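Job type: complex structure
Entries:
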Amino acid sequence: MSDQHSAFVRSVADRAARHPAAATILVLALFPLVFPFHTLAINILLFGLFAAGYNITFGYTGKLSFGHAAFFGGGAYGCGILIANYQVHWALAVVFGVALGGLIALLIGLLATRTRGIYFAMVTLALAQCVYFLFFHASSLTGGDNGLRGVNVPRVALGPISIDLLDPMVKYYFMLSLVGGAVWVLARILRSPFGAILEAIRENEARARACGVNIEATRLLSLVISGMVCALAGALNAINLSTVAIDSLSYHTSGLAMMLTLLGGMGTFFGPFVGSAVFLGIEHIVTGYTERWQLIVGIVFIVLVLYFPRGIWGSILQRAGK
Amino acid sequence: MNGSAILSTRGLTRHFGGFVANRDVSVSFPQGKLTAIIGPNGAGKSTFFNMICGGLKPTAGDILFEGKSLVGVKQHHFARIGISKSFQITNLFRDLSVLENVRVAVQAIHSCFDLWSSRTGHGEWADQAEALLCMVGLQERRRERADSLAHGEQRSLEIAVALASDPKLLLLDEPTAGMSPEETRGIMDLILKLLERRTIGLVEHKMKLVMGVSDNIIVLHHGELLAQGTPDEIRSNDEVKLVYLGKAQH
C-alpha cells in the first residue's frame, strides 16, 4: 500500500473520530445500498440503537445492567398501545414511548443506582422482571401472552408527500432519520461537560467524588438517558414489526443488548451497530441451516470475546490508534 | 490560637467494631497556617484525616469548619464548601491526559449536569487547569496520559487536581510518600508556596520533615491526642520524645 493511500485512510479515520455522529449516520445511510437484505438491515439499525443506548450505561458509565429490556419493551408498549388501541398519531406515540421508557429508567434508577457492582445487575434484573409481569398481567391493554397486535403505521405523511412504509428500503430510511437524530443527540451529550463527568466517574469514582461530583445523581441521569434511547429503539421496533411481543420485556432482550455491545466494543460510539450487524447477520445465515442457531452464535460469541476482548470495533480502533 | 481556627474538632471518636481508632481528639487548624498531623504507624492519623475530609463518619464528637458542623455533610459537597484533599495512594484519572485530569476537576466545581454545550467550548476551565499545571511544574507534560508520569510527578498532579476547587483548606495525606529527597524538597517548596493563599493540613510520619515547615503540629498516639503546639513545644515535649525515641531524654 502506498504512503499516499495510508495517509488518506488516516485522515478519513481522524475525521470520523472527530465527528462520530456524522460518520455513524453516513455509514448507516450507505449500508442498505451494499447490503441486499433490507428487512434485516432495519433490524440491525434498530437493535444497533438499542445497544448504543445500553452502551451509555455499560460502556460509558461502567455499570452492568440486566434490566434494559424494561426500557426497550416499555418504549415499545408505550408507543404500540397508543397506536393500536387509541389510534394516536405515530409521532406522538413514539414521544410517549420514549417518555415512558425514561420514567421506568428513573424509577428503576432511584433504587438501583445506590448499589454497587454485581448488585446493580441483580437489582436491575429484578425490577425489570417486575415490569415484565406488570405488562404481562395487564392483558386488556397489552395483549398479555399473545403480545400487542395492530401497531400499524403503513404510511407516513411528511407535509405534502406521503411515504410508503411497506417498502423496506423506504422504511429503512424513515427509521434512519429518527435513529440518526438520536445518534446525533448521543454524540452531543457524550461531548458535553456531563460526558466529561461520566468519563471521570468511570476512570476513578473516589477521585470524582472528592472533586465534588454527585456520583449517584450523575448515574441516575445517565441511566435515564440510556433508558430513553433504548425506549426509542423499542418504539420504532413496534412500528417496524406492527406488533409488540411480551418477549421484548424479558431478560433475553436485556442479555441481547449486552451481547451486541460486548461484541461490537463497549464504550465505543460505533461498536454497538457493528455488534448488531455481526450478531443479527450470523443469526440470519445460521437459521437458514439449523434450528439450533443459538449454539453456533454462542460459539462465535465466545471465540470473539476470547480473541477480541475489546469487541470487534474496539479492537479495530485499538489497532488503528496505537 | 483557637480564635482563628478554620477547622476544629471536638471530642472526635471513631470505633471500628470493638477497636477504637480515634478517641476524644480535640484539635484546631489555625487559619492560613500549616498544620501537620504526625504520629507513629497505627496512631490513627489516617482515620482522623478521613473523618475531617468526609470519607468516614465519626462515632462521636463534632467537626467544625468555619463554625459549621461537617458531620453528616455528603462528601461531594466538601469541594464546594472549600475543603479539598489529596489521597495517600495516588488516585488519578489514569487514562486521561494530565491536562484533562485537572480540567475535569475544575469543571466539576462549575458544571456537572450540562448535557448540551461542548466541553471544549469552555476555554476558561482549560485555562484555569493550565495555570494550576504551571504552578506544580507540569505544564510541559499536559498532553501525556496521567499514568505515564513518574511517581513524583503523579503526586504533583494529584495536588493540582486537589487545587482545582480553589480550596480554603487543603488536606494532604502523606504527599511525599515514596519520593526521592529531591522530589520531597520540590513538594515541600510547593506546599509552602500554596500556604500563601490557604490553610494546609498535612499527614506525615516523617517527623523531621514537618518540624522545619509547620506552624502547628498535632501528635497522635494510640488514637489519642498526645500533644498539639508549635514545633518548639513539640520538640521539648517529654511524652512525644518517649513515643518517638523510646525513652525520655532529660
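Summary: Residues 215-241 of chain A form the longest helix (27 residues). Chain A has one domain: 20-253.
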